[in-house]
What we know:
This protein is α+β, with helices and mostly antiparallel strands. The protein is 32% helix and 37% strand. The chain folds into three domains: 1-30; 35-103, Immunoglobulin-like; 110-157, no CATH class.
Amino acid sequence: MSGVSNRRVRRLSGFLAGILCAAMVFAAGPAQADVFDVKVDQARVMKLPDRVVTIVIGNPMIADAALQAGGILVVTGKGYGSTNMLALDRAGHVIMDKTVQVMGAGGNDMVTVYKGVARESYSCSPECAARITLGDDTGFFAAAMGQSTARTGGAQAAGPAAAH
Length: 164
């Protein structure tokens, strides 16, 4: 009878070992991605782990980051898509690895107009005005960008004169 009991114990031990191995394989599978969402043309603030001295953005055309005092990071969405962001300590060790997902601005004040395949975006709060948005028709985008650049240039030119 003890021979039968020993075989059962060995079978049970083998069975439990198999379950344990399977559990370890599933636990060692790919981790859930740590994603940080931000909207295009907007910024979000993130508190960083201690000891971070360097931030690396995989694709700076998608997102940008500015390290501030006190472990504060400002992440700005530059273009649609996703990229990775690494936080390094002084020795170059990776302390944090996140995916930055940049999505469309959206919002209640945005209106999109399609003229055939050409797209134009407007911000309507309270009146509609051209909004520079990635993916808009090239001519519309260039005209809106030109106006914005001219306005910024005029404001910069007027700034120092007003200080006198």
